[in-house]
User: Fold these one by one.
Assistant:
Number 1:
Amino acid sequence: MSLPDCIKKVTSPVRSLITLVIMAVAVAGCTVQPLYSGGSTGEIGAGVTPDMRSKLASVSIEPANDIFQQAVRNRLIFLLGGGAGEPQYPAYKLRMGLNKTTVSAVTVDVGDKTDRTGRPSAGSVRAFSDYVLLDNQGKPVARGKRTVFASFDRPRQEFANLRAERDAQKRAAEELAEQIFLSLAQDLSKL
């Protein structure tokens, strides 16, 4: 039996239903678009509507206390303002509590007859943020928590080990800022 004979055996109502379902899926796929998509450039926030962009650009961020917080703050300022910096007259203020910890993920016996048995060979940076978005009157309009992890290898050389940990902290700060940005965009879309 050939393929056309199989199709002919399907009754007309069933064939019509299958055609209708395929067309509905095709039409639905054409109209659905992620709200905060990166557009064709793949950048975070590139496909945001102008109204949402103006809301995001009206958020100011409280000053940072350490290098990690400053890295998150700088990335957020860039994402929120589209590279234009902080707003002169902000409509919202973002207050963040940031924390990071570094843990050893794996320990191995290096087997080189030294007392360095159980030396960590991999690490992980955990970055955590607890944020509150305040309006002009200081009333909270949104709250959220975000956590990210960034893994890294721990080589035997001390400088390479420190550099790998610092790079992981930088990756964690940037990823945390991007997650907070997307969360703020979601929160502001509800206002």
Number 2:
Amino acid sequence: MDDIMQLEIHGSIMLVTGIVLVLLWSFFSAQWWSSVFGFLSLFFLIEAIWHYGVADYKRLKKEST
């Protein structure tokens, strides 16, 4: 499996994890400790976007050479 595919799979896993954490955060929003789910979901969603961006950059760089 090449590096680009691994980045896309990792990004997809992080995206699904971020969405699940957002759902947990919204379900437990009345509790003070649910802010942990919010911070973690933001982290995972930002990391997923970053992984997709790096994978697209590597794909474009690979196609241009």
Number 3:
Amino acid sequence: MAPKSKKTEAATASAPVAPVAAPAALPKQSSQSASVKWDRVVYDVVAHYNKTTPQRTKLIDLFMVYLLVVAAIQLIYCVVVGDYPFNAFLSGFISAIGQFVLTASLRVQTNTTDKNEFPTISPERAFADYIFCSLILHFFVVNLVN
């Protein structure tokens, strides 16, 4: 094998190196003041939600949280204990997540602040669509269980 030339070292050594300016130091805040700001942000978001959200939408949101908790419990149970009746796990998990998606659709269609998104759909029509789609979802879930 031929010896390697040292041209690359000479080329890089002769190039002038410009000094790099250090970035300006940002003033450090204590972790206590940062946590106070985050606490205040969370408090403001919750206060705004409670003040401006209608009771019907809050009920839909609570049901969506319940569906997520049910799906999480089923997933944790499947990981910890096992998924022996896999069809049962799959149908329960699909049922919870599918119902969550349908409920999110209902929330979007019945939201009073976004009336211009669905001007022709009344809340009663949206609820009827929700019930119909829920029946179809649960029909498939029951058939998946066997």
Number 4:
Amino acid sequence: MTTRVELRKVQVLGPTSSKFDDPIRMHLVLEVFEKPPKDAIDVTFTWSPVWDFPVDQELDEMEVGPLTTLGRHEFTIESDPPNVADIPDPTGPTALIVSLKYKGQEFLHIGYNIIVTCDGDLPDVFTSTEQLTRHIGMCYPKVRHIAWDEATSAAQSFSDSSSESTSESGEGTTKRAKRERAVQS
């Protein structure tokens, strides 16, 4: 019997257009089939501007689970916003990447298109986020098959077009995600 975890839904909570320094909140629904994984799942948020210079920021990381039962598991996860002082020009296209890993192996990669706009004149150096608005766009989940608790590993990936993903209204370095509900099959 093998472990299989699938993304059923991911939704941005709150408005898709918000202040740059607002926390980023998401609701995830994962479904566990056949055999629950033994350990917790690591979740990492990364802010990745689409430029040539390296300014990626790991915004937050937390643990989800362990998911000890079969069936659906719903979580609300929240990330700190990016530090504008570490980004030479925060305006323009950006990616928000939410990565879910089990024992160091990524099994789910959720990417969002982000556009950051500035109200008024662009300053030479951004020292404040007062003029900045972030707009969260389309979601692109990618599922990877991994060896969960087996001795062998597999890393085949494919896009998961069956999962529902939406972007609609609605601290520290190690956190625990808020577990909302686990419904046993």
